Amino acid sequence: MHLSSLDLTIIVGYLFTIIAIGIWCGRSEENLEDYFLGGRRIGWVAVMLSIVATEASALTFIGTPAFAYNHNWTYIQLLIGTIIARFIIAGIFIKQFYRYKVFTVYEYLSKRFGTGSKNWCSIVFLVTRILASGVRLFGASIIVSAATGLSPLNSIIIIATAAVLYTVIGGIKAVIWTDACQAIIFLVGGLIALIFIFRDIPNGWEDVVDITRRFSKFKLVDFSFNYKVAYTIWAGIIGSTFLTLATHGTDQDLVQRMLTAKDYNRSKKALILSGFADIPIVILFLAIGSLLFSYYQAVPTPGLPDKADDIFPYYIIHNLPRGLIGILIASVFAAAMSSIDSALNSLSATWINDFYRPYIKKNASEQHYLTMAKVFTALFGLFLVFIAFLSKDTQEVL
Predict the structure, then answer these.
(1) Residues contacting residue 178 through CB under 8 Å, at least 6 positions apart
(2) Comparing C-alpha atoms, which of 207, 219, 201, 167 is closest to residue 376?
(3) What is the pTM of this model?
(4) 294-339 pLDDT, tens per residue?
(5) Digit-coded pLDDT (tens) for 141-179
(6) What are the domain boundaries of the chain?
(7) CB–CB of 178/337 below 8 Å?
(8) What dotted CATH number matches 5-391?
(9) At what angle are helices 324-351 and 115-148 packed, to 10 degrees?
(10) SS3 string of the chain?
């Protein structure tokens, strides 16, 4: 597949703009609190958008429409637990983090239970986050590859290089503000796709209603107790609640941005409202999947991909006009980088604050710690690329 010069200009322009934002954000950093916590002066709206962007990875951009295309809307049940958990985290976890003014969530364990618990939990986070984010980088590269025609390895290098550059230079402020921009790009791309898919369906809403009804594509709730069914109301209420308590309450990756808000109340607001912001986003991408199913039922297309994950990229490349293809591919890059940049910054924050400063280089200058924070951010980027390369022979990512 060959992209037009207009599409390439949009994609390259987007990547350079994101890097420029990172450079701008890094111009006033003086210490670790600036680099890892934004001086605790980030507005709650930016924090909220950053949380939303981190949750919405490239796999979400492609996988959510694929689920609706193959199945129905029962995925939406998971939102119940994510919102329940946010109220618990806001009322218990975040309040304690602000009370003790911690840099990392694991530092809180040290203050409450001793350094042993902090060290073990920090090690577990470092190892599992490197592995998980490396695999996530590879998963994102597959999607970027499908949408652009690049090889997965070249896609890995482009995504990682861009994310590492602006994260190293700008720290958490670059992560949050680029995430906020990327969340908007992500949504704009989804809305553009939705409008064009609906426009292409021959009889419009009449076909959508008829086809989705015949194939039960708008099923929202599943009350079954069948453990083989992935998305049930019980998974949404129980499983999703506990999963979100772990990901948003005890994982430095997401907790770190909550600690950048000016105070506890603003942090709480950002977290809770991000859960409600997820609702229209999930609806948007489920709707894309349902409309894609309706379109290809109404317009049989030879050579349609067998895998549901390939359907949305296929439509983007073959149906959208020049220029809009570039915007949609930029949306895929946005979703990919917004989940990688936060991992890089949180890995560096955990290593510097929980190990390097207390054990390896005590009582060094603030400038030394700031320099090493940037060095280790880049090194962790190399680790993620290495894991992504090792993942290239896996048959499935999820």
Answers:
(1) 18, 21, 22, 166, 170, 337, 338, 341
(2) 167
(3) 0.89
(4) 999 999 888 888 888 888 888 988 898 888 888 888 888 887 888 7
(5) 877 787 777 888 898 999 999 999 999 999 999 999 988
(6) 5-391
(7) yes
(8) 1.20.1730.10
(9) 160
(10) CCCCHHHHHHHHHHHHHHHHHHHHHHHHCCCHHHHHHHHHCECHHHHHHHHHHHHCCHHHHHHHHHHHHHCCCHHHHHHHHHHHHHHHHHHHHHHHHHHHCCCCHHHHHHHHHCHHHHHHHHHHHHHHHHHHHHHHHHHHHHHHHHHHCCCHHHHHHHHHHHHHHHHHHHHHHHHHHHHHHHHHHHHHHHHHHHHHHHHHCCCCHHHHHHHHHHCCCCCCCCCCCCCCCCCCHHHHHHHHHHHHHHHHHCCHHHHHHHCCECCHHHHHHHHHHHHHHHHHHHHHHHHHHHHHHHHHHHCCCCCCCCCHHHHHHHHHHHHCCCCHHHHHHHHHHHHHHHHHHHHHHHHHHHHHHHHHHHHHCCCCCHHHHHHHHHHHHHHHHHHHHHHHHHHHHCCCCC
| The dihedral sign for the CA sequence 225, 226, 227, 229 | negative
Q: Are 81 and 244 in contact (CB under 8 A)?
A: yes
Beta-bridge partners for 261: 42
Positive or negative CA dihedral for 37, 171, 246, 218?
Answer: positive
CA distance linking residue 263 with residue 42, whole number of Å: 10
Decide: 354 and 118 in contact? Cβ < 8 Å.
yes
Label residues 278-296 b or e (16+ Cβ within 10 Å = b). beebbebbbbbbbbbbbbb
